[in-house]
Amino acid sequence: MPTFNDILILLPEFYLVAAACLLLLLDAFMKPAQRPLLHWISIVVLLVAIYLVVAGQPEQAVTAFGGMFVRDDVAEILKVFALGTTAMVFVYARPYLIDRKLLSGEFYTLMIFAVIGIMLLVSAGNLITVYLGLELLSLSSYALVALNRDAKLPPEAAIKYFVLGALASGMLLYGMSMVYGASGMGGTPSLDLAQLHNVMSYTTAPTLLLFGLIFMIVGIGFKLGAAPFHMWIPDVYQGAPTPVTTFIASGSKLAAFGMAYRLLDAGMGDLSHHWQLMLAVLAVLSLAIGNLVAIVQTNLKRMLAYSTISHMGYLLLGLAAAGPEGYAAAMFYAICYALMGVAAFGVMLALTRAGFECEEIADLKGLNQKSPWMAFLMLLAMFSLAGVPPLFGFWAKVLVLEAAIHANMLWLAIVGIVFAIIGLYYYLYVIKVMYFDKPAEGSTLQVQSDKPLRVVLSLNALSLLVLGLYWGPLLGWCRRAFGL
């Protein structure tokens, strides 16, 4: 039976559920002129949730509801950054939503429910909790992608996302059922990840267990957007409203890392010799396909979509290295990518207005002449994504490559270095367009006058430089979470 302590452990999640329901009620009773208040209320809700997560952080890992939920340093770090990046998405989205008459309670409620899904995923201590968090995140994301139903691309992108996402979720669930069945052959069947870890070596059905692992890796690969399970990413990134794309490119990647860590390390640690090789293959494919296909893109959102695929390849390097060092490097990389992705899409939102979508690389021509500061912020985001020192992205790449080398995967680190060099091209091309190309004839490119957007975006992009110079404290936080 649930105890008061269980409720305290999950207080941030319960608080967000209540807040999301309250937002729906407020939206129903508010006059249209009052709806912009929902924006500020939603941001305050997320900031209070961050406070609840930090203030309630336990000194050591604790569980709730019979081990279904785990609250440890790994979960706390991922929750703080998921909530923080979502708050930034809200700030960047406001002018976009107002211009397109999409500012409503549904957007903020769905986003908050998606964040709750992320928080459940990163705190999962049970296979049922993993699936619950995954579906809450996925179903909210499908609806968000189709938010602008009057436009041509969003409904199409939502259908593709839903069909492929449902297939991936089904495969993940099928893999879980196989693992659960195999755990009962030679031991007591269990849905608890910690208990699964203990009975793995006693199962009398290793083949069933291996097939279950393969199906689970496919599901994880889809949620990360890793090749060859990346087919949904370019179309969804291009078709979804830009604020939704920003969220999918940031918060959902933190969730995917958390899910992979919980399932593979906590539940399937004894099979690491199998899943390390599988993840290494996915990493190489992601690095190759992501970087090579991004080179030929002319649409900025599609280029960043393929960039995401390549970055998930680097994150998989850390997961494939396994062990505390590999996991710490992978989590550091996931946090880094979330901040870089939000900054890059934030600049696009700052340049988007009613009747104009900043989506093509050519739209950035001569941006330095129109707005030197906004061009500088995009330069920081592109250089960090490319891994140029001393920016944040450089250290993230170095750490996952170092973890791969220490795990005796030198060949994988070499592949990562080669594709990092190849990837420089398309990031530098964006910078070249901004700084050296003349504005297109008749260009109406201009920056949003929304002051909160400009201030938060500036802090977001400058943090990539600051964290590149002072990355030690964040890395120390990540390493301590894994006992280093």
Automatic annotation (TrEMBL):
Q: Name one GO molecular function term.
A: NADH dehydrogenase (ubiquinone) activity
* Broad enzyme group: translocase
Q: How does it sit in the membrane?
A: Multi-pass membrane protein
EC identifiers of the protein? 7.1.1.-
NADH:quinone oxidoreductase/Mrp antiporter transmembrane domain boundaries? 124-422
This protein's GO CC annotations: endomembrane system; plasma membrane
Q: What is the protein's major site of localization?
A: membrane
| Assembly with partners or alone | NDH-1 is composed of 14 different subunits. Subunits NuoA, H, J, K, L, M, N constitute the membrane sector of the complex.
Which protein family is named in the record? Answer: Belongs to the complex I subunit 2 family.
- HAMAP family for the chain: NDH1_NuoN_1 (MF_00445)
> What is the protein name for this chain?
NADH-quinone oxidoreductase subunit N
Gene name linked to the record: nuoN
